[in-house]
Amino acid sequence: RKEVEQDPGPFNVPEGATVAFNCTYSNSASQSFFWYRQDCRKEPKLLMSVYSSGNEDGRFTAQLNRASQYISLLIRDSKLSDSATYLCVGAPGGGYNKLIFGAGTRLAVHP
Amino acid sequence: DTGVSQNPRHKITKRGQNVTFRCDPISEHNRLYWYRQTLGQGPEFLTYFQNEAQLEKSRLLSDRFSAERPKGSFSTLEIQRTEQGDSAMYLCASSLGTGTETQYFGPGTRLLVL
Fold first, then answer.
1. Which of A31, A32, A97, B54 could form a disulfide with A93 if both were Cys (CB 3.0 to 4.6 A apart)?
2. What is the pLDDT of residues B81-114, one digit of tens each?
3. Number of Cβ atoms within 10 Å of the Cβ of A107
4. Contact B108, B90 (CB under 8 A)
5. Do B100 and A97 lie within an 8 Å CB cutoff?
6. What is the biggest distance separating any 2 CA atoms in chain A, rounded to whole angstroms?
7. Neighboring chain B residues of A43 at a CB cutoff of 8 Å
8. Quick check: B101 and A97 CB within 8 A?
9. Looking at the predicted structure, is the pLDDT value of residue A77 above 90?
10. Which string of b and e fits A15-47 if b means at least 16 CB within 10 Å?
């Protein structure tokens, strides 16, 4: 079983839709979690960190449930430019050493 | 551009040849990481350095792979006797090295072994 598991998608949604991605992790030692965004044939870029209290950045909301070992990302009012692969990431050392990536969830936003 | 840079961006080689990739981290970043990404998968950790010291190596890093960061600045990743299974994107990332922090990724080197 992979340490970080995601639904690969693809999620095909119209502009303006709300879409939610889920992720589960198996390593209870993971201290920190992140969502990275990766465009086709580009490097991953940090989208946001994930906190137990939940955090929001504009149209994006991330949530961590340590008891269920579950992480979510909600995107509201989807834009065409949101089309990308979203990588769920765990960090056993709090991001201080290695990152453990899920396989990613593909999102395609259409007009 | 003050981001992480990697060279070459693309490399095509024949099976059995040796290849070397270079990564230049963001200046003043003490930590440097190497990851490998295959199609349809997320990046997988290979190794990381704190300054010039290599602190962790993944089981993925077989004895054909070696990474160095001799002066604590740029790093090289060498693959000896390449195999077709080595075909992947090799990503380098760097971070300040002072605590929980963001890892910034370079554009990657895409390797194709024929």
1. A97
2. 999 999 999 999 999 877 657 899 999 999 999 9
3. 21
4. yes
5. no
6. 42
7. 91, 105-108
8. no
9. yes
10. eeeebebebbbeeeebebbbbbbbeeeebbebb
